[in-house]
Structures are given as C-alpha cells and as structure tokens.
Amino acid sequence: MVVADVLGPDFDAIRRKEYGYLDDEGLVYLDHTGAGLAARRQRQAHAQRLSGATYGNPHSEHPASTASTTLVENTRRAILDHFNADPDRYAAVFTANATGACRLVGEAYPFRRGTRLVLPIDNHNSVNGIREYARARGARTHYIGLTGADLRLDEDALRTALARRRGLFAYPAQSNFTGVRHPLDWIGVAQAHGYDVLLDAAAYTPTNVLDLRLVQPEFVAVSWYKVFGYPTGVGCLLARRDALARLRRPWFAGGTIEAVSAQGGWHRMAGDESAYEDGTLNFLAIPDVAHGLAWVDSLGMRAIHERVAELTAHLLAGLAELRHHSGAPLIRVYGPDTVHARGGTVALNILDAAGTVVDERIVARDTAAARICVRTGCFCNPGAGEAAFAIGRRTLRGAVLRTAASGGTLDDYLARLGLPSGGAVRVSLGLPSTIADVDAFLDFVARTYRDRPADARGLAPRLRC
Known about the structure:
By secondary structure, the chain is of the alpha/beta class. The protein folds into two domains: 3-30 and 300-378 and 423-449, Aspartate Aminotransferase, domain 1 (Alpha-Beta Complex), CATH 3.90.1150.10; 46-298, Type I PLP-dependent aspartate aminotransferase-like (Major domain) (Aspartate Aminotransferase, domain 2, 3-Layer(aba) Sandwich), CATH 3.40.640.10. The protein is built from 18 helices and 19 strands. The protein has helices at residues 11-18, 21-25, 40-52, 63-82, 98-108, 125-128, 130-136, 155-162, 185-192, 224-228, 241-244, 286-299, 301-321, 360-369, 382-388, 393-406, 410-417, 435-449, and strands spanning 3-5, 8-9, 28-29, 90-95, 115-120, 140-144, 146-147, 152-153, 166-172, 196-200, 219-223, 235-240, 257-261, 266-269, 331-334, 345-350, 372-373, 375-377, 424-428. Strands 4-12-11-10-9-5-6 form a seven-stranded mixed β-sheet, with helices on both faces. Helix 5 (98-108) runs parallel beside helix 7 and helix 13 runs parallel beside helix 18 (435-449). It is globular and about 75 Å long.
C-alpha cells in the first residue's frame, strides 16, 4: 500500500501506482458515479486466484465446489464487516447490481390495497420502477418534491406523507443527479411511522461510511462496481432478517428452494439468503468483492470521503469562477454550491454568453474528443431533472399527451417543455481523482465555450434514460 505518514494515504502516489493506466491512456476520468475504477492490484488478485486453483458450481460437495462456496461465504462476511452489520440481524444477498436488489424488494414486498409506497422525486429509475409492483397490487405511490436551490427534500412534506397509512419508504442516501446527501435520520423517522425503508446506497457507498449498527434500514441496495470498479455484474441487497422473512417471492428458481415437486405443484423455499439468489451465483467474480473491500478498507472510507470532499470543493469553486468576458456566468450548477451534506457528484449545464444552455450532446461530443470522461443526460433520475429545470406536473403531463397524440420525437417533447437541452452534464469524482483532473475539466470548459456560440449540427440522437 502507498501511504504518506500518520496523516493518511498519499492519494496522488496511489493514483500513479494503482490507477496510472488513466495517464497512460491520456484519459481524464470524471464519471465515478457512473462506474468506479479498479486498482491494478484488484486485477492482479483476480488473475492470481483463477490461475491458482479450480472452482466449480457451489451447489455441490466436491472439492472444486466447496472451494467456491468457501470464497463466496467469506465475501458475504466481508460485506457485513464493511458495513459493521450484525450477522445475526442482517443478511447479504448477492444480486446482479443495485437494480436487481431493488427489483427483488419490489417484486416480493407485501404491497396491498391500503398500503403506500413513498418516494422522493429524487430517485434513480431502479427505485422509481418499484411503483409498478405497488400499482399492480393496489397500493398507492406518493411522491415528495424538492425545495430550494439546493434541491433537497421537503421534510415537512415527508413527515406529512409518512403520517398516513403504512408501507415502504424508498430513497437514495446520495442523489446520483445532484450529489445531495439525504439524511440517514429519515430511516428512523419512517420506521417510527410504521414504514419499512429501502435505502438506495449505490451512489453513497463509494465515498461514505454506512454503519448498520447506527442506522438499520430494512433493505440496502449496493452495486460493487460503483465502489471499486471491479467486478461488474455483482451487487448486493443487505436485508434485515426480520424484513427478509416478510417478503413473498412470486416465483422460485434453481438454487432458491429446499424441495419442489413438478407433478405435486408445491415447493419449499430455502430458509436462508439463498432463497433470494436465483440460479448459480457469479462464483468466479464474487470473491473479487472481498479484494475490493480489502483495498478501500486499507485506505479508510473516511479518508476517501475527505479526499473527495476536498476535490469537490475545488471543482465547485472553479465552476463559480468561470465567466464569459462579458461577466456572464459560463456554468449553471444544479444542487448545493458547497460541500455541506453533498457528495462528489456535480450536475451542471454550460451556458453561452446570452445565458442559453448549450445542448448537452454538444458537450458530450466535445469532451469525448478531448478524452474527458463525463456523463450527460438525465442520469436515470427524471424527478431530480424535473426539479432542476423547474418543470411542473401539469406542464409535464400536457407535453406527454400532446407529443403522444402527434407522434412526435423526444426533441418535440423537449420543445413543448421549453427546454433547449434534454439533460445536464455530470462531473463525478472518486478515489483515483486528482486536482489535475479537476483543473483539466475547468480549463477545457473555459477554452472551448467561453464567448463561443453553440453548434448543434450533426449531433447524434439523444441517449435513453
């Protein structure tokens, strides 16, 4: 490990040693909310493990099978240790990603007529989609809006919503659009009103400590590639065992049952986590999660958090200083303009000298040509985008109906909303990020867009959300 002294890790040295492939490729990587990056040691550990032993399907008792089972169960324990979760109280269920964890809860949660699904409008579509399960079973979905320039949740509206009926409250610990960190205190508030809580921690866990002895949501959704880049295709649902027992899966699959009869028409689900892990686990990749956790834990999540906060403050200060020569701002930031209760995800639009938003597709084209990796669009979070662009429900519904009736395009829809752009530009920082990365983006924006008119010709179609 590369460390400086008792003050903590030397992140610049770590960048050179473990993530130097970015500089070798000439990449400025600012899309850590989209995907984290793997350290070289993680890749090496994967190759060494696969070349050093034989691993088979865990659903057996032979040596290759038990070798896989041992590593999978060791990883399960490492996950619970990372979150300081009591193994008697919490289970770690492997899924394909955070989306799979959310789907598992949505499909099996006991929604019924008279219960509610309460959601902030600032939610990833993987959480928004749970409303379709609720609707199919007669439960109502209630959305809570955002307030102020910081785009934080209306807490009075939240408490009012939770005071009515009971059900499931699902929200992100950190917005994948604005970087706002929503209070973990809401977990206890919702539970006191009789709600179960699904915490979407996908954007939060890469740079923050989540201690499941201090807060105890019923469900937590995590994607490991967001935290440390590799492996992809492995996520996790951390679930309280009492809450897991209340779920009712609408089907069964290989690996999820103790017994089943084809002709008798009955089955018995497994009595542990495996009841929720469909088919054969990704047993060749799951042990890489343990390597990734060992890596970030060796650096310290609090040290990673402080490093990213420092870089975020530098980015926000630099964006605020970007001006056209007329003095007009070059950047519009959505969400908090300080690092108070926010993460390293910054959503923005670039403005021309007249104050008009530069189409994000132009920015996508230009940044890609400069080998700067940022994300553009709505980031699978339409509610935060609607709040950022101040689009009301009535306007949205009217635009949807008129566009559908006329068979219009997405650009027609945006025109009806009065939007020159279909989304924003997202700059997001992570463990490997450096001041040089931030400065490269700031310099690029100043050189490319200051006092220059936007050119929208020849743009590719908009990406789907």
